Amino acid sequence: MGRILITGGLGFIGKQVAGLLVSQKQHTLLFDNLSPQIHGAVPDLSSQQLLDNADVEVFRGDVRSAADWTEVLEDVECVIHLAAETGTAQSMYRISRYTGTNVGGTAKLLDYLANHKHKVAKIILASSRSIYGEGAYDCGRCGVVYPPMRTGESLRLARWQPKCPSCGDEIQAFATPEGARTHPASIYAATKLAQEDLVRVASNALGIPSVIFRFQNVYGEGQSLKNPYTGILSIFSNQIRAGKKVNLYEDGKESRDFVHVSDVARAVALAVGCDGADGRTVNVGSGKPATVEQIALLLGERFGSAMRPVVSGQYRLGDIRHGYADITAIRRMLGFVPEVSLEQGLTRFVEWVKQQPIEPDRLDVATRELVSRNLMPGPPEVR
Predict the structure, then answer these.
(1) Distance between CA 106 and CA 196 in Å, rounded?
(2) How far apart are CA 295 and CA 346, in angstroms?
(3) DSSP letters for 12-70
């Protein structure tokens, strides 16, 4: 594969993908807007050894700009489209911003490809497990069911666990396959599903192979410690280092599929190098669930903190209860098997965090924004 463009190339996942591709002697162009929410008010790239490599170029621009796409797409053969606004909760009130970047930016890319000569021979899109909503559950009476978004009323009454939408019985989450029903529960999720549809339709029409990856909860070294809107490992780490108690929403038993960023980068590199997943939409995850409480406890152990996490009973509209991926398809198509266990990944992450400057805990600011918009209740007494 010739020149490769990575949008969001200086972001958490982008740098990992770029580093791996460069190690394979691939020439990469990193297209990034250096968002202050992720990189700080004054981005500091002085420690980025990746940028010293002769096979790496950087372009600071905006995916919403047609002119910027025109400039970066020259001689590009593969586009890895990672750039996106990513905060689930924030998306519920920054609707125009999330739609403009995630949907509008993708449309600008495809519009260029539809109307100009180019060399692009593959598109790889980073989508999200959030498009499933609650994902797949098993009901002993009804079989496989897909519960809808939890209502504000059920959350206020601390009815955290979804029930069968048909019979009302208890249900159990299981690994969600790619063929599961899509049911976005947030604006962010809705924009990611729109991105998928745009890429799927346009790539078919234009004859450009595409691969759509539905990333689970990606974590690891290099994750932004400045962004209070996404990345619970970073949020919890900031709280622990500041000597604060980690605040668990709901009852702390909600679960996610945490996949290490190095595994995600390998999946992307595999799709660049072979055609096994061309034209397909595939999950990228560990295939195993972990509760938020479990993550908080494991982080605390690694930081040497004796402070126990606390359950606040707070919640956010748009959050799901459970979700983890069926990764059968990506194993079959690309030979991908996760290599970094959760325990190994958290150890690596914490060792990296300890080497970083201590960031202020900005979660209170993000929480106040949600409370002021009735997307989250005010802080109750911690119990």
Answers:
(1) 9
(2) 9
(3) HHHHHHHHHHHHTT--EEEEE---HHHH-SS---TT-GGGGSTTEEEEE--TT-HHHHH
Helix axes of 232-241 and 342-353: crossing angle, nearest 10 degrees:
50
Active site residue: 188, 219, 249, 324, which one?
Answer: 188
- CATH, domain 4-136+174-372, list 3.40.190.150, 3.40.50.300, 2.60.40.1120, 3.40.50.720: 3.40.50.720
Residue-wise pLDDT for 100-149, tens only, equals 999 999 999 999 999 999 999 999 999 999 999 999 999 999 999 999 99
What is the distance of C-alpha 129 from the center of its chain? 8
Pull the structure tokens for residue 377: 């209740």
Q: CA 382 to CA 365: how far, in whole Å?
A: 19
* CA–CA gap between residue 149 and residue 160 (Å, rounded): 11
C-alpha–C-alpha distance, residues 16 and 168, integer Å = 44
The structural domains of the chain, with segments of one domain joined by +, span 4-136+174-372, 137-173
Identify the sign of the CA torsion 263, 268, 274, 279. positive
Round to whole Å and give the CA distance between 379 and 381: 7
188 among known catalytic residues = yes
Is 80 exceeded by the pLDDT of residue 379? no
Q: What single DSSP character describes residue 99?
A: I
Nearest to 26 by CA among 194, 265, 242: 265
Tokens linked to 305: 């903190």
